Amino acid sequence: MKAAVVHAFGQPPRYDDFPPPPDREAAIRLRVSAAAASPLARSRVAGAHYSSSAAPPFVAGVDGVGLGADGRRRYFFLPAPPYGAMEEEVVVAEARTVLVPEGLESTVAAAAANSGMSCWVPLTRLAPLRAGESVLVNGATGAAGRMAVQVARHLGAAHVVATGRNPAKLEALEPLGADVRLPLGEADARLRDEVRRWARELRVGVVLDYLWGPSASALLAALGGPNAPRGPDRIRFVQIGAVSGDSIPLPSAPLRSSGVEILGSGIGSSSPDTTVAAIGEFLAALGREHFAVDFERFPLREVERSWGTERDRRRVYSIP
Fold first, then answer.
1. How far apart, in whole angstroms, are the C-alpha atoms of residue 282 and residue 113?
2. pTM recorded for the entire structure
3. How far apart are CA 68 and CA 57, in angstroms?
4. Contact, 67 vs 44, CB < 8 A?
5. Which one-letter DSSP state was computed for residue 228?
6. Helix, strand or coil, per DSSP, at residue 14
7. Phi and psi at residue 236, in whole multiples of 5°?
8. Distance between CA atoms of 274 and 256, rounded to whole angstroms?
9. Confidence (pLDDT) at 168
10. What's the burial of 40, exposed, middle or buried (CB within 10 Å: 0-12/13-18/19+)?
11. pLDDT for 244-298, tens place per residue?
12. What single string gives the DSSP state of each residue in 287-309?
């Protein structure tokens, strides 16, 4: 069969032949129609993600949409390596699939699912929103951050505070639900002051961090210390992505002097059953609410030429 095959870490996948996946117990075979080059998929191709387990050659992609023998479309994720999502046929545990709502395009579902899962799981399971709370999205100008702004408002956030480096993209978040937009790249002291101010005034209860690195350090400093915002509930700081760096200095004083809890959200932080349920809920909401999803479509045969970089617009590959 044809697939996007990774022959070496750090190089774009190539449209190549790969053996068809064998049947497995408790698994179903799907004819793949769309698969996304999400940050997770890209990180695995680079050999840089903590969940990477396959050595080249392997098939790129972690999730997508396919058609089953029963004629129903299913979203699927995490096929067993060395197989991935960017192949003509996938065999995946049925427990790792959910039905795609009628009327929701396969490419849209594939493009949005990973972003949606990244915020839906924290806001409904790991750090569920409480009445009257607001959400701060650190790194809101990327595909996942844009979705997080919309999902936070959909789930009842009183307000949304968004941070980002690109001023034009940051301002474009206002119609999506971002009430306050804070540019990154400002002096740390100014960013801390602004975050502290809005966290106090808007009662920020959850921080969704897609960046880590210096901005996360500034946010944690703003939420800790003697002038930190205080409230009846703890602020849950959920670490989701590390676009700006894998590590930060973490002084003890801000944590001891605040009510901040640091949580992680990613592969391994939730049970497979929890993840599947959350994806199903998100896709249902996506079908009803028509959240804005920004992506580009390419045929799979153009994967090597179009792979690009992680900071480009999200790409969805149609198969075949």
1. 8
2. 0.92
3. 26
4. no
5. S
6. strand
7. -95, 115
8. 31
9. 94
10. buried
11. 888 998 888 777 777 789 999 988 788 888 898 999 999 999 999 999 999 999 9
12. HHH-----EEEEEGGGHHHH---
Question: Residue 155: what residue type?
Answer: L
pLDDT tens track for 186-222: 557 788 899 999 999 999 999 999 999 999 999 998 9
> What pLDDT does residue 268 have?
79
For residue 36 the two structure tokens come to 């996304």
Which residue carries 């901005």 as its tokens?
215
Tell me how far apart the alpha carbons of residues 107 and 162 are, in angstroms, rounded to a whole number.
Answer: 27
Structural domains in the chain, CATH included, are 2-100+290-318 (3.90.180.10), 115-264 (3.90.180.10)
* Contact present, 303 and 320 (Cβ < 8 Å): no
Cα distance between residue 213 and residue 185, in whole Å:
12
Query: In angstroms, what CA-CA distances link 180 with 6, 24, 161, 264?
Result: 41, 50, 5, 25
Q: Which two tokens stand for residue 175?
A: 């119609």
Q: What is the DSSP string of 229-283?
A: ---SS-EEEEE---TT-S-----HHHHHTS-EEEEE-SBTTB-HHHHHHHHHHHH
* Token pair listed for 292: 């804005």
Element (H, E) at 198: helix 188-202
Tokens 């999902």 correspond to what residue? 151
3 state SS of 145: helix
Taking 70 as the pLDDT cut, the residues of the chain under it are 51-53, 186-187, 225-226, 230-232, 310-312
